[in-house]
Every structure is written in structure tokens, then in C-alpha cells.
Amino acid sequence: MPNRRFADGEVVMGRWPGSVLYYEVQVTSYDDVSHLYTVKYKDGTELALKESDIRSQSSFKHRKSQSSSSSPSRRSTSRSRSRSPGRPAKGRRRSSSQSREHKDDKKKTIQETNLALLVLVFSFNQKPSENNTRRYNGEPDSTERNETSCVILEQKLKPDLEIERVLEQYSLHPRKEEKKKEERHSEKKFFETIKTIEKASSKTKELEFGGRIGTFMLIFFLPATVLYLLLMCKQDDPSLMNFPLPLPALESLWEARVFGVFLLWFFLQALFYLLPIGKVVEGLPLSNGRKLQYRINGFYAFILTAVAIGALLYFQFELHYLYDHFMQFAVSAAAFSMALSIFLYIRSLKAPEEELAPGGNSGYFVYDFFTGHELNPRIGSFDLKYFCELRPGLIGWVVINLAMLLAEMKIHNQSMPSLSMILVNSFQLLYVVDALWNEEAILTTMDITHDGFGFMLAFGDLVWVPFVYSLQAFYLVGHPTAVSWPVAAAIIILNCIGYYIFRSANSQKNNFRRNPADPKLAYLKFIPTATGKGLLVTGWWGFVRHPNYLGDIIMALAWSLPCGFNHILPYFYVIYFICLLVHREARDEHHCKQKYGVAWERYCQRVPYRIFPYIY
């Protein structure tokens, strides 16, 4: 067994495999079987080298001393000549030439190989003649290639252009760049992980309406409820005990002409929505910080609709056609809302994550289809949810009420509508006009800021609002009820109280949300929250937590009282409204508790009653 030449821990010069270049390494171990030395480079790289690939540092130092012995003399001679005033012009020219070479050398990138694979690439790409023409301290070297490697640590490399070419060709980088690249990769991976976590956290975890099973049943239950209520109103005795109802033939529920009239109505309102009249305002900031723009022209659309209806009546159009085909219109609206919901869900599958609704991103098809997957679906600047929220259904509600008033006069041969019908029409007209006049206020509601646009809102806006909210007027056509003037006056006062609470509470909230620093609101006190918003503890919002709901319920009662007390059916709207608002109130409570935390608990202590003072 031959004796090992280099001891463990000894610092020597090791040849890089596949090249003629040597680097300073430290011997860490020796394998007696393979006769290979394990050496460690300065960057921590460990390789196994043969003894023939390792040299002592003395041979390199000897060559370096020879190379450096002649260079200082030349530099000193050059310096002495540059100082001599009697130096010949030729010498000065040679000195300036050397100075230019020195500056050129400075412009070149002098990089230590530092164990990078870059040097290995140079050795592979250079010809033997190129290796023999390298410069060391400005001197041409004519030694052999293995002697060239002895002074490689003092070598001046090629310019950056050549280095970049090689790096680009072989994808090799200095170690510092590799480290930076690894750091950038780790940082990128970190942010991707954060994005994945945020995406997972944006999923809807708490399901409402009974979850997947509940929403699946509601998709069928809601249309069935509308048909049931309308069929009941058509009965001579609309008692809830009269069950089961005689069902009409299926073919009688559908008429293509009626569906065409409904489509005409829908697209007429869309045309009014697109008219460049009315101001353009910004909604509340979305989760990504963006603010959508909305054109406020609902009241103008109402005026244009009134003009169109007036023209139809002037030309003797029988508006009670709506009453005669009321069931078919309801079925047409339900079919259209279902088709619209399917379209909305399909297009929502391509929507970016930040555009999905917070409450409709559960990952369950049925639930997301019902609650709405996309928050603000738009076709260009046409906002589908915002349009359906106020236009076709709400204005259609007024048109239906007017049709019922004319139908009552025709069926009962009256020259004037009944006082009950006038009260119902007037109260509900006031409600619709108020909503359209204060159209901008809807931009702060949960329907716009939180709920997606799916079957729930599409069916609610296009079917439930016009055909269930007009239930009292539809009921009075077949079941006229006489109301005395004193009773009518009491009902009017009740409706005015409800409307005042509803409007003033909503105005306080909307004005405070948009500009808390408004001097007109200086009398309002609030609890600051971590979100930067405040919770009002004075005014109507210091009386109960949801005073707008209280006003809604009082008005709903006033709308039903003109129908008398013979049947409970006209009061279905009141019962439904109470259940709806209690559900919304519970949802609002949960949402506000999550959003405002401790501030909401303090608010609940200051304002203990939710909707009804001293009761609930």
C-alpha cells in the first residue's frame, strides 16, 4: 500500500475535475482502498480527487514569486520615467499607452473563480493556443497548460460580455447569484403559500339557509310558495284550511306571448338603465380595494316608465291583461330567473378569486348556485345585480298594483277604486319612489357589498318582489274590503310612522358611512372599531340595533290592514317580513361580531334591543 502524500487538514491545490485549473482546498480524509483524497473547497464543496490531481502550495508560490519579481521593476521604471522632465517624447507616448492599458484593465471585470463552474466552462471552450496567450500582470506566458494552472488565482478573466454569454449558454452563475436566486425562489414560494392560504381562507365556511340540503329545497320551495299564494288569492274562500287546492292544468301556466311581454319589459328597463342620464357614483371599496362605478338613474327610469304606461292607457291598451294572466307572468318570471341564475353561475366559474362573493364561495355547487358565486357580475359596465335589484321587479311591482286597481274597477263596475285599494297603492308607491329617489343608499346594503348574484337574488328581485309584494292588491280584486275614513286615517298615520323610522334611520347610517366627519352629523356619538369604521350609539341606532327593520315591519302591517281581518292571507307578507328580517338580523349580528369584535360587544351592551324596543 503506497504511503499517502498529503495529511488530513493540510491546505493544498486541487485540480477541478475536467479542467486544468487548480484551487486552494483542504484535505479532509483519505480512502486507502480507492486511493482518493476527499478535499473541501472554500465554498464548502467536497470532492474526491486522485493524488495526481493534487499539488502542494509551494510549487504555486514559487511560480507566483517569479511572475511578480519582474513586474515591480517595470512598474517602478515606468513611474520614474513619468516623473522625469527630460524624458523623450517617445517615452511619454509609451507611458500614456501603458496608462490606457491600465485603465482598460480596470474597466474589465476581474473576478475570482471562487470555485464556480464558470472557470470549468472556460477551460472547455478555449483552444490550447488560447490558453497559451493569457496575460498575467500584463506579460504573455508561453508555458505549458499545466504550468498555466499554477497562477490561475492571479488570472484576469475576459470582459463581462464573455462572462454573460457563457452564463447564458450554460446557465451557470457565481455562488452569490445562485444564493440570491435561491432566496428569490424561496420568497416566491412563500408568497405562493400565503396566496394559497388566503384562497383557502376566502372559502365560505359557515353555510346559511340549511346548507346544501336547505338551499336545494329552497330552489323548489320558493317558486311553489309563489304559485300557492297566487292560487289562494284566486279562490272564493282563500282560507289556509282549504287544502289541497285545485291545481290548474300545466299548459295553462305557460303562454309564449306572456313570456314575450315579460322579456320586452325586462329589456325596456335595461335600455332605460343604459341611458346616459343621472350621476355616476362609486360604490364601497371591494376586498381588492377597487371601487365600482354605478349610474344613478332609477328615478328617471321610473318617470320614463310612467310616461310609457300613460301612453298605453291613452291608446286604450287593456292593462288589466296583467291580472287576467297573472299566473302566466309569474311562471314566465320564474323561468327567466332560473335561466339567468344558470348563466350567472357558469360565468362565475371563470371569475377571479377576488371577485367572488364572501357568502357564496363554499365550493358546493348547489349552495353557491343559490346564494350567488360572483359578487358583482358585469357585462361591460352593465351591472346585472344592481340593475335587477331596483328596476324590473321594483318598478314592475307598481305597474302590477296599477293593473290590479284597474281590474278592480272593471270587474266590480266601479267608477273609482276602493279606499282600500287606494291605500295599498299609495303606501307601496311611496315605498318604491323612496327607494328609487335614494337609489345611491342601496350601494351600502349587504345585498350589494356581501351577497353574490345567484338564484336567491335573481328569483327574489324578478319574482318574489313583484308577485308577492303585490299580494294585497291582488287579494282586494277578488275580495273587496270596505274601510271607513277614521280607520283609513289611523292606517295612514301608522304607515307614516313606519316610513319615518325607516327613512331617517337609513339616512343616518348612509350619511355616516360615507362621511363620518360631516358637521351635520356632529351630534352622533359612536364606538370606534379596529376597521376604522364607527358604530353609532345615538340617534335611531342607539334606540335599537336595526331601526330600519322596525320601520319596515310597521309599514308592512299598514299595507295589510286595508284588507281587513277575514283571512290571514293578506298578512302573509307581514309574517314573511318578520321572519326575513329576524333572519337578516341574526346574520348581521354574526357578521358584525366577526368584523368588529370587542367593539360590537360594547355596542350590544349599550344597545341591548335588536328590532323591537323592550321586546326583542
Automatic annotation (TrEMBL):
Pathway: Steroid biosynthesis; cholesterol biosynthesis
Catalytic reactions on record: 4,4-dimethyl-5alpha-cholesta-8,24-dien-3beta-ol + NADP(+) = 4,4-dimethyl-5alpha-cholesta-8,14,24-trien-3beta-ol + NADPH + H(+); 5alpha-cholest-8,14-dien-3beta-ol + NADPH + H(+) = 5alpha-cholest-8-en-3beta-ol + NADP(+); 4,4-dimethyl-8,14-cholestadien-3beta-ol + NADPH + H(+) = 4,4-dimethyl-5alpha-cholest-8-en-3beta-ol + NADP(+)
Segments for region (Disordered): 53-109
All copies of domain Tudor, residue ranges: 4-62
Membrane topology, record value: Multi-pass membrane protein
PROSITE patterns xref list: STEROL_REDUCT_1 (PS01017), STEROL_REDUCT_2 (PS01018)
Cross-referenced SMART domains: TUDOR
Regions crossing the membrane: 209-231, 256-275, 296-315, 327-346, 457-477, 483-502, 523-544, 564-583
Keyword Nucleotide-binding: no
Bias kind Low complexity: ranges: 66-75
Keyword terms of this UniProt record: Cholesterol biosynthesis, Cholesterol metabolism, Cytoplasm, DNA-binding, Endoplasmic reticulum, Lipid biosynthesis, Lipid metabolism, Membrane, Nucleus, Oxidoreductase, Phosphoprotein, Receptor, Steroid biosynthesis, Steroid metabolism, Sterol biosynthesis, Sterol metabolism, Transmembrane, Transmembrane helix
UniProt enzyme class: oxidoreductase
GO cellular component: a single term: nuclear inner membrane
Composition skew (Basic and acidic residues), residue ranges: 99-109
Primary subcellular site in the record, as a coarse category: cytoplasm
GO BP terms in the entry: cholesterol biosynthetic process
Any coiled-coil regions, as ranges: none
InterPro entries: ERG24_DHCR-like, Lamin-B_rcpt_of_tudor, Sterol_reductase_CS, Tudor
Compositional bias per record (Basic residues), positions renumbered to this chain: 76-95
Known EC number: 1.3.1.70
One Pfam short name: ERG4_ERG24
Molecular-function GO term, any one: Delta14-sterol reductase activity
Compartments reported by the entry: Cytoplasm; Endoplasmic reticulum membrane; Nucleus inner membrane
Family: Belongs to the ERG4/ERG24 family.
Protein name in UniProt: Delta(14)-sterol reductase LBR
Native source species: Eudyptes sclateri (Erect-crested penguin)
Lineage, opening ranks: Eukaryota, Metazoa, Chordata, Craniata, Vertebrata
Gene from which this protein is expressed: LBR
